């Protein structure tokens, strides 16, 4: 229902843009759109989220100022623009949709639908 792409190998300081395309019914159920990541041996970590209207966005402390979340309704696609990448950004990145009405949404357990993950590797 969610298909993520755009991962790859990049040098430190470089940029990547991740995309996540949703099935129409899944996308139309969204209240929040989010990105999370998981490095080997670590728990899933919040990266970024936004609400459907686009007037609320939140970022994890470690990516704030470097990453930007956006969406394109016509394409039913969520984006994550990642700039100034660091080796510690290396992880599998997951897109997700939260279909519940709430004030904010930054916890992975709040999300109902998940993409399969795309690997981002940042070399030093």
Describe the structure.
With 124 residues, the chain is mainly β. The protein has 1 helix and 11 strands. It has one helix at residues 24-28, and strands spanning 2-5, 8-11, 16-22, 32-38, 45-51, 57-59, 67-72, 77-82, 91-98, 113-114, 118-123. The strands form 2 sheets. Strands 2, 4, 5, 6, 9, 10 and 11 form a 7-stranded mixed β-sheet that branches. The longest helix is centred in the N-terminal third of the chain and has 5 residues, at 24-28. The mean pLDDT is 96.
Topology diagram in text:
Blueprint lengths: L1 E4 L2 E4 L4 E7 L1 H5 L3 E7 L6 E7 L5 E3 L7 E6 L4 E6 L8 E8 L14 E2 L3 E6 L1
Parallel strand pairs: 2-11
Antiparallel strand pairs: 1-3, 3-8, 4-5, 4-9, 5-6, 7-8, 9-10, 9-11
- Rg on CA atoms, Å: 13 Å
Kindly report the oligomeric state of this protein. Answer: single chain
Number of strands: 11
Structural category is: mainly beta
Note the beta-strand portion.
Answer: over 45%
Helix content: under 10%
Segments where pLDDT lies below 50 for 5+ residues? none
Q: Order of helices and strands, N to C? A: EEEHEEEEEEEE
Main sheet overview: 7 strands, mixed
Give the end-to-end Cα distance, rounded to a whole number of Å.
34 Å
Our count of helices gives: 1
The overall average pLDDT, rounded, is 96
The shape, in one word, is: globular
Which characteristics define this entry?
124 residues, mainly beta, 7-stranded mixed sheet, 4-stranded antiparallel sheet, 11 strands
Entry summary:
4% of the residues lie in helices and 48% in strands.
